[in-house]
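Progress report, Aim 2. The chain analyzed during this reporting quarter is listed below.
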Amino acid sequence: MRIEDVLVAVDFSQNSLRAIEFALSLVGRDGEVYLLHVIDSDFAERISQEGFDEVDSAIAKMKENAEQRLKKILESLPAERPKIETMTVVGKPFVEILRVASDLDFQAIVVGIRGRRGKDVEELIFGSTAEKVVRASRIPVICVPDVV
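Predicted structure tokens for the chain:
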């Protein structure tokens, strides 16, 4: 099976940047890579409860910031590359990753993972979002470690 289109979960960590690089090499120049950033709805709600802003205003600011960061990532990538699309949504990260993957019929999901000291084995291998995606996905999930 040749993988030609993948969804990459992007949280702007070094791990997710490695996941983007891996996805680009995986699909080749004729493939398509879709970068998805999910603004955690719980986080946005907490910000508004702390009096920082109204929920809608806080989300709008976070979405604008995320879209600018995704644009910078695109600008930093080589010109000769697969087609890349970006999307920013609001919700629970693992739910939105799975929803977008299903709605847009991707062949695989690529996520960055990192090791954490002092956690149980699963937490050491997978972050909580990555673990939930791996457990619930109906398509292959490729986990890119923080050291490759």
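The domain at 5-144 is CATH 3.40.50.620 (Rossmann fold). The two ends are 24 Å apart (CA to CA). These observations will guide the mutagenesis work planned for the next reporting period.
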